[in-house]
Amino acid sequence: MVTPTLTTEEILTTLRKVKYPGFSRDIVSFGVVKDARLDGANVSLALQIPSQDPEVIAKVQAAARETLGSLPGIGEIHIQAGARPAPHDSAPGPSPIPGVRHIIAVASGKGGVGKTTVAVNLSLALARPGAAVGLLDADIYGPNVPLMLGTPGQPVAENGKIIPLERYGLKVMSVGYLLGDQSPVIWRGPLVAQAVRQLLHEVRWGDLDTLVVDLPPGTGDAQLTLVQSVPLTGGVIVTTPSSVALLDAEKGLRMFRKVRVPVLGIVENMSYFICPHCQAETDVFSRGGGREVSEALGVPFLGEIPLHPAIRKGGDTGSPVVVGTPESAEARAFRDLAEKVRRAAEAAIEAMPQLIVH
Ligand SMILES: Nc1ncnc2c1ncn2[C@@H]1O[C@H](COP(=O)(O)OP(=O)(O)OP(=O)(O)O)[C@@H](O)[C@H]1O
Ligand SMILES: [Mg+2]
Asked: Whose CA is nearest to atom 11 of ligand 1?
């Protein structure tokens, strides 16, 4: 039998099956593979891993070895793996936004669970008198914040910085304001990363107690760039009571843990139905799953947000319930959530005092 001859191209194609731990991006496109050489059937790899965590380094190395081992005709596999030295060019390390105390990411493993709805109402509920709050829409592919806040106008630049729009007392920035109706769906990873970095560092946020960041679903380029660009106080994970969504919440949780970002807690959205006519509560799905998964994973449970037509309507008409119907049970649920998030954020930042920047 003739053993097939391997090429470095095949080695790289095979390595593209290895995902960077906690993220959906593969190690080749992520720039982890610095060198791949073949000597007959033997392969030598040099991996540079953008983490100082020995566990992550060992994991990438083991996954690369296992995946390459499945190639027919492969000989010995030598892998040299180490932490990437501090980056200095296109991807600078995390640097705080001057004047911003907390940066909180709202994330989920799965799409459509209500991240943007939660991010918008949470921001509005956090913005009580005396608390300056910003909302950054980091969903480059489908920015929904402009619609949900009904923000008119376009941001302008001043001395090389973009001035965020203001709505209901919030400072707001979204790629949607810059692109209008132009669809950015064909953007590739590096452009997404660049856009997220600009929204963080080239916008004049001013002094903020909290900057809430609404993320796209999943664990892709925007998430990776966010954690690499700014020190996050923590992440809030949104889930719904269905078991699939809960599994996805775990995915989101693992992503934050891999990059050592504290998880402030899990919030269960569309938890139960409030009848708009009689206000009776009905558990449409298996309410309580969010609390169970929080307990199982050892993270705080931040509360339940009801499924209510007014929440969707408020989002569609640019008048979110926290400001549109502030006395309603739905608005109260968001205010309770905001209070828990505020306390969790203070506790998290006390555990890392070096990140406080004024
Ligand atoms: N608690 C709720 N009650 C009623 N409708 C809701 C609730 N939460 C979200 N919705 C509606 O569900 C839809 C999806 O919500 P949203 O856009 O916030 O989800 P998302 O997780 O941000 O989605 P994507 O992953 O696409 O960014 C919207 O129409 C929104 O108005
Ligand atoms: Mg969204």
From this structure: 312
